[in-house]
Amino acid sequence: MSGTGDRRFFGSTGPYSAAELADLVGARLVPPAGGGLVPDLRKVAPLQSASSDEISFLDNRRYLALLAATRAGAVIVAPAFAASVPRAAAALVIAQPYLAWARIAALFHPAPAIEPGVHATAVIEAGAAVHPTAQIGAFAVIGSGASVGANSRVDPHAVIGAGVCIGAQCRIGAHVSVSHAVLGDRVTVYPGARIGQDGFGFAVSDDGFVSVPQLGRVLIGDDVEIGANTTVDRGSAQDTVIGAGSRLDNLVQIAHNVKLGRCCIVCGQAGIAGSTELEDFVTLASQAGLIGHIRIGRKARVGAQAGVMSDVQAGADVIGSPAMAFREFFRNVATLRRLSRQAKAGERDGSGSA
Q1: Helices 97-108 and 18-25: crossing angle, nearest 10°?
Q2: Which residues are part of the catalytic machinery?
């Protein structure tokens, strides 16, 4: 049996008929080619472990062999793969199978319901406002003048600093700290993240370093997700801004005064230095590093481990350190390999000797 959706950890709903699921996502339902009825579907599961009462999906032709061998009762597929669905399975045919899978999986396994109330060990300081429908976990701290919106959840040991505003339907994970920040609605902050601490700002004197007061805030738009152990520094004299719909992976560093546009993606271990701006729909791959005071254009993509030291034009794809266009980078790699092979060949035949 598949370990997907283990009931010890994940609440579940259902079962649902294949027709109900097809209607939910707007897919075309194709009955099993071999005839027979599709049983009600009780779970989601990967192709390789799904059984006849489970639904799976295919979104990559590399896994066609798994599709051919699956025992799933229904499979979500793109039109190009509909004919490859086993005869015993129904097909939900749709242009974006992974998007449909996300919606169906969320139907089977919705987010845990809020349990309104404040745990007896939580600390709610004077002047804080916690909506009656919010859930405040054990040993959480809500600072003076802070507010927690409707249907939001603050998990155990989280600390919401003085004056912080948490919008509606937010999820603040365990051991998160938030200070000097205003969060929109439906923001999710995963465990251990740090938001609003001092930025890395100091002046140099003859005797050492003098810290510069960090007087800005962190502004987080609606529908943002911030990964575990990620850090977002507050601004120095301006604000640090995370645009609506953006997704920050685990272990990301956002420095002071950085501005992210809408729906940016920042993958794990990437770092953005101070006062750099990302326009809408920018993607930074894992371990990318951006120097401060530059601008990354709309829909640009920065490859893994890239070192970006200057502005990147809208729509550009860059990689390498220093970062350059994908084609230029791989052309340089090919040239170096060719020169290396020629040098080795010269050493073997003696033509490369002194």
Answers
A1: 120
A2: 256
pLDDT for 354: 46
C-alpha 44/C-alpha 50 separation (Å) is 8
Find the DSSP H helices in 16-148: 18-25, 64-69, 97-108
Q: What is the pLDDT of residue 102?
A: 97
Among 144, 234, 147, smallest CA distance to 184 is for: 147
Collapse the DSSP code of 98 into the 3-class scheme (helix H, G, I; strand E, B; otherwise coil) and give the result. Answer: helix
Distance between CA 155 and CA 172 in Å, rounded? 6
Domains of the chain, each with CATH number or no CATH: 18-108 (3.40.1390.10), 176-322 (2.160.10.10)
Q: What is the pLDDT of residue 39?
A: 82
Three-state secondary-structure class, residue 59: coil
Q: What's the longest Cα–Cα distance across the chain?
A: 84
How far apart (Å, rounded) are the C-alpha atoms in residues 160 and 214? 18
Beta bridge partners of 278: 260, 296
- Determine the pLDDT at residue 352: 53
- Residue 228: band (very low, low, confident or very high) from pLDDT cuts 50, 70, 90: very high
Distance, CA of 263 to CA of 282 (rounded, Å): 8
Q: What does the alpha-carbon distance between residue 141 and residue 345 come to, in Å, rounded to a whole number? A: 68
